[in-house]
Amino acid sequence: MQSHHIVRAYDGELAMLGNRIAAMGGHAERMVEQAVAALINSDVDLAQKVIADDVVLDEGQRWIDDRAIVLIAKRQPMADDLREIVGTIRISADLERVGDLGKNIAKRVVAVVDARQPIRFFRGLEALSNLALTQLKQVLDVYASRGVDGIGFVRDRDEEIDAMYTSLFRELLTYMMEDPRNISSCTHLLFCAKNIERIGDHATNIAETVYYIVTGEQMPIERPKEDKSHKVVVEG
Fold first, then answer.
1. Torsion of CA 211, 214, 215, 220, to 10 degrees
2. C-alpha–C-alpha distance, residues 58 and 93, integer Å
3. Domain for residue 215, yes or no?
4. SS3 assignment, position 220
5. Is the whole-model pTM more than 0.85?
6. What is the mean pLDDT of residues 116-121?
7. pLDDT per residue over 18-68, tens digit each?
8. How many whole angstroms separate alpha carbon 154 and alpha carbon 102?
9. Higher pLDDT, 234 or 181
10. What CATH number does residue 124 fall under?
11. Which of 18, 24, 16, 53 has its CA nearest to residue 202?
12. How far apart, in whole angstroms, are the C-alpha atoms of residue 170 and residue 145?
């Protein structure tokens, strides 16, 4: 009877880690959505909210790190359970970084508001963020369901995000070439675009971690990890 009680408690402890990851994932999604909305709508108050909300993800990562270490020491997990616990540590770190990237976008809202630009400057950024957020939401669904059969789509979408970022990079450079008054705001938007592209990379990291948790195997190492912006040259 005592043994049965211990197993149930162990299951509950593992479930708590999973629940915290789900909460962090939802919070990270909202932060990025709100940061981009604040940027597009020149909403400084919303940007300040995003910046303040980052502490929630910082606390979540620390909580998972502490609980995971205690769980490893107390339960001495092996095989599936050990992968589960180590995986939650890795995923929480990726989600914390997603929050940081959202916060960094929010911090640039004030600078862009001071030199408000035409809406066309923001359309590509909004499309890029929609793509990255869709990828993040889908990979979090995979984590919740453990349905890794189609997880390869995450890498495919990451390539799409990289291609869109490279196109946006070229477009913003062109705007700066056309009118030097665009340089300040477009530079901030370039940093925002790069932050969004990095969110896609973290979503891919999470997908690879989930695959390892479920299967015990690493995904094939062949993975495109770079955009092509370093090759972009805009002639005057």
1. 10
2. 9
3. yes
4. coil
5. yes
6. 69
7. 999 999 999 999 999 999 999 999 899 999 999 999 999 999 999 999 999
8. 20
9. 181
10. 1.20.58.220
11. 24
12. 38
3-state secondary structure of 108: coil
Average pLDDT rounded to a whole number, residues 203-232: 79
Encoding tokens for residue 219?
């995904």
Q: Is residue 191 in a domain?
A: yes
Residue 236 domain flag: no
Residue 170 contacts by C-beta under 8 Å, 6 or more apart in sequence?
A: 229, 232, 234
Contact 224, 175 (CB under 8 A): no
Fill in the DSSP letter of residue 181. G
Q: Are 165 and 74 in contact (CB under 8 A)?
A: no
Q: How far apart are CA 152 and CA 208, in angstroms?
A: 9
Number of domains in the chain: 1
CA distances to 89, 99, 174, 201 from 68, in Å:
7, 21, 49, 24
Q: What is the pLDDT of residue 149?
A: 82
Measured CA distances, 50 to 99, 101, 110, 176, 225 (Å): 9, 11, 13, 28, 28
Q: 40 lies in a domain?
A: yes
Identity of residue 205 = N
The HSE-up count of residue 168 (CA atoms within 13 Å, CB side) is 29
- Picking from 211, 21, 190, the residue whose alpha carbon sits closest to that of residue 98 is 21
Write down the mean pLDDT value for the chain. 88
Q: Determine which helix (DSSP H) or strand (DSSP E) holds 28, and give its type and residue range.
A: helix 2-41
Total Cβ atoms within 10 A of residue 173? 16
Residues spanned by the domain of 113: 2-231
Distance (Å, whole) CA 3 – CA 8:
9
